[in-house]
């Protein structure tokens, strides 16, 4: 897997007047070696068995049967009383669904985007006809919230729930992302009629020269920031507490179709683009 560098990182690692003794190249290689290790360890933590499981089973990275893992959990071999999220991902990764598919709901326009909440209790679907529906998975997939979107351009291109599941943001092919409170009791949410759907302007950056659309948006793990991928080949970061755009990364050479914060720090972003590249990008703020 190859990694590309954003223009911002290019400028950071290639200062004017650098000498040609190879020290700059070593610095870049060291940085990307560290980045590769960070990604490896994060992936392993989130999709592999924890160290406590291996220790309690008395094995060194060998194959452990699912039955043995479940038996160990019941007698609390790990000392934690339950599987970690990585343990659960490891066990579930051995199986594929056996039942379905079945139709749960039907709308009069195309479903364009869908995703589960982080804990799997809610499912969000965005439709081309200005609708977003949130389904309660634990209660038989009943409609938890029916949202009528505001200022839609062509379709709902992405949705994201905040970590506490109180807020939802949605994007379309416009530079404005809307945020709505979905934590209240009302099932219906009409933009600026029943609920206020605040607009967050992602075209505030001084380098933006023309209107663009947003393909992807995600909350940070603490709910304080949004990251967005756009049609202008860039990645944007928006500070919700400060209510302003804080970063623009011209990271690709074509549309950025998907983005996400990689970890809790907010300093590493994953992105995927029509230029056929998936990139891990470190965000470099001026105060860092």
UniProtKB/TrEMBL annotation:
Region (Disordered): 1-26
SMART domains to which the protein is assigned, alphabetical: WD40 (SM00320)
Entry coiled-coil feature ranges: none
Glycoprotein among keywords: no
UniProt name for this protein: Uncharacterized protein
One GO BP annotation of this record: proteasome-mediated ubiquitin-dependent protein catabolic process
Keywords in alphabetical order: WD repeat
WD repeats: 214-248
GO cellular component terms given for this protein: Cul4-RING E3 ubiquitin ligase complex
């Amino acid at each position: 897997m190859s990694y590309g560098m954003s223009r911002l990182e290019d400028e950071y690692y290639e200062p004017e007047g650098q000498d040609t003794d190879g020290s700059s190249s070593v610095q870049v290689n060291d940085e990307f070696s560290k980045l590769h290790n960070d990604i490896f360890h994060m992936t392993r933590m989130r999709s592999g068995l924890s160290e406590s499981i291996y220790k309690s089973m008395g094995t060194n990275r060998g194959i452990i049967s699912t039955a043995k893992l479940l038996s160990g959990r019941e007698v609390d071999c790990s000392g934690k009383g339950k599987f970690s999220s990585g343990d659960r991902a490891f066990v579930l990764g051995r199986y594929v669904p056996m039942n379905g598919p079945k139709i749960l709901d039907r709308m009069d326009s195309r479903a364009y985007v869908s995703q589960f909440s982080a804990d799997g209790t809610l499912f969000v679907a965005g439709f081309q006809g200005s609708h977003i529906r949130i389904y309660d998975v634990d209660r038989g997939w009943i409609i938890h919230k029916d949202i009528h979107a505001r200022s839609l351009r062509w379709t709902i291109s992405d949705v994201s729930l905040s970590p506490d599941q109180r807020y939802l943001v949605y994007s379309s092919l416009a530079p404005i992302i809307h945020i709505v409170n979905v934590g209240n009791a009302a099932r219906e949410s009409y933009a600026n009629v029943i609920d206020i759907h605040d607009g967050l302007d992602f075209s505030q950056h001084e380098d933006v020269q023309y209107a663009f659309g947003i393909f992807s948006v995600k909350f940070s793990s603490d709910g304080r920031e949004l990251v967005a991928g756009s049609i202008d080949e860039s990645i944007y970061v928006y500070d919700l507490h400060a209510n302003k755009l804080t970063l623009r990364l011209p990271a690709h050479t074509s549309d950025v179709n998907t983005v996400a914060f990689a970890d809790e720090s907010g300093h590493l972003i994953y992105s995927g683009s029509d230029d056929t590249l998936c990139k891990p990008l470190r965000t470099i703020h001026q105060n860092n």
